[in-house]
Amino acid sequence: MDERVKRLFPITTTWQPTVQFAGHDVAALARRYGTPLYLYDQATMDDAVATYRHAFHLFYPGQSHLAYAAKAYLSTAIVQWANAKGLELDVVSLWELQIALHAGFPAPRIHFHGNNKTDEELQAALAASVGQIVCDNENELRRLAHFAAGQGRCQPIWLRLTPDVDVHTHEYRRTGRRDSKFGFGWPEAERALAFLSKTEQLRLVGLHMHLGSQIFTAEPYAVASQRILRWAGEHDIWPETFSPGGGWGVPYTPSDPGGDIGEMVQAIAAAVTAESERWQRQVPALLLEPGRSLVGRAGVAVYRVGQRKAVPGVRTWLTVDGGMGDNLRPALYGSRYYALLLDQGGHIADKRPAETVQVVGPYCESGDFLIKRIKLPQARRDDLLLMPVSGAYHLSMSSNYNMHPRPAVLWLQRGRVTLVQRRETLADLKRRDAPWPEEG
Ligand SMILES: Cc1ncc(COP(=O)(O)O)c(C=O)c1O
Predict the structure, then answer these.
(1) What is the CATH number of the domain that holds 100?
(2) Does the pTM of the predicted model rise above 0.70?
(3) What is the CATH number of the domain that holds 315?
(4) Quick check: CB of 329 below 6 Å from ligand 1?
(5) Is 135 a catalytic residue?
(6) 3-state percent breakdown (helix, strand, coil) of the chain, nearest 5
């Protein structure tokens, strides 16, 4: 298999005679658990964690921490995996927080984010004693100080700053510019410091930024890190922890850039170290909070081929049994994907003549496509279509559009398959509904 394709699939993939992940035959899993089916290969996630930690070890002279941004994909199993690996956890809503706590994740290793935290969320985060609340705006600071006083607590916080640094990624994934709904711009940050100097309920222990997502160049991280620490130096508020967020990119197609984690960590480490020296301060603890680059490659979506429609001279549509309900990214961002076609027995179907198709789903939208244009072997009904790099921002953004149930999720370890999320049932879909109250 071509190396540029291999790097899209889990590290445990074997290709012959049938495609297997961690020794598990994909076609057999699809027959047993049905499709659409999501597979998570733990070894690939473990490997990503090890890559980050190795880069910290190589390049950063101070303490370092790795957090998992739960929004990429949250379930009880993945929270428990993150805990077992000693990761910290970034949550962004009351419900993410509650799932994490329910799964047994220790509150002191949780960071609570969000640009519109409700009173209920702030109080719940305080009551749970989460490690840090990442404050986003002045109104939130005031409310948090009030609630902390009510609970007799002094809450450690970070400030999320908007460094006004742009990155090359989709418009919807840029968050570091002045024109962003997230975080404190410089003038607001000045006022936040003035407020914090007068309150005993909040203790500023960290500075945070997040530039966006699916970023492949390290330079903006270095520039923004430097900007934030220069500001800290100028205001004499050197942080115990500095977090440049997450956002590092992963390849989705063979032609995408690689996304070398070491390159990004090295650039950040150099900027933070240089700025610490300039202000004659100890290097802060460095905390990265990736989502996609920890779990994206570990996930594979498995679809079953259905209808094939060819309009000569126009296009051929290949319909599979999933689409925008489990993967909104192509419709939302125009994201591009790669796919591999297997016959029903799980063999790569590369002996058949190839054709160019658009891979679409069963949802009632012309925007319901998974891949706009890809050359695949001629597909037959009931073949399997594997879409790699499906581990991040698929299931966490999934919906019940057209009342499709959300897919089952299997956790793969060598010698063990665990159903960590069962497929939704009709009972799940009906659970919230009450009967019509009739006229009048
Ligand atoms: C504050 C914050 N941190 C981390 C992440 C994770 O980003 P990624 O999955 O691209 O690494 C996000 C994603 O949007 C985020 O908003």
Answers:
(1) 3.20.20.10
(2) yes
(3) 2.40.37.10
(4) no
(5) no
(6) 35, 25, 40
